Amino acid sequence: MLEIKNISKTFYRKEALNDVSLSVRKGEIFGLLGPNGAGKTTLIRIINRIVQQDAGSVRFNGNLMTDKDLAEIGYLPEERGLYKRMTVHNHALFLGRLRGFSKKDVLTKMDYWFDKFQINDWRNKRIEELSKGMAQKVQFICAVLHEPQLLILDEPFSGFDPINVELIKQELIEMRAAGKTIILSSHNMKSIEEICDRAVLIHEAKKIAEGSISELQAEQKMGMYAVRFKGSMIAFVNALWTGFEVIDKDILGDDRFVVRVKMRGENSFQDLLKVLIGQIEIEAAWEVLPSMQDVFIGLVQPKEEVSDEE
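^ that's the sequence the OP posted. Answer follows.
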């Protein structure tokens, strides 16, 4: 659906993006991940035609993007832009009408979303009377009111409590199931890695990795496994001998533990199970994959160490 090719952008001699390319497929949740200042928001503004790139191209549904394509895009910016003195009702109506919908159509869509997000009681409140989380809900609704093909959310979970974070996540999953395409941009990688199908990692204006979440995790995995068991911790450690290293453990109580183990040499997961069977009662065992934050650190750390030595 969206193809970014060799995008570069500089502001006052400061490089914001350096030859960044990526592709977003129709019907997926795509993560745009990286620390603050990496260039994520600049890229999003280029896609939304708010900022013009210095080099490169943006294609939407196979064609070079034009202003007409913006009708198919919903955008929730990091900087929240609501008119504080307007009521929730009038604000949503105003933005819906700007999208070209009739008043009747906008009101129908508002009724659906206000009921779904349980904010009917807020209709006549001014935006300035709302908490940050409440205002976030209103702005999210305004971003999806016109049922866009592509929804771009910049730091979407900032300001939400855990309950509303889950509410928005479930809504995004439903939208994906309905064939919508979603881009989530965040520096908080943990908050979105569980719902993204694929992601790109950006660091210091450059793309450093792109792929499915499982692919990116697999590339940085370190041969670590977890075992939940019942029995003696001493028996567990003695069974391992020198082929495995205990990294840490959680005590669950009643002689139950979760222990994380790292493989040494050519030992495999099967070898781990073989030495433990009969020594303790295994309840579960699984491979421990790195978080996206661990993946990111693993990708940038070597470069930082080299620069430090220089």
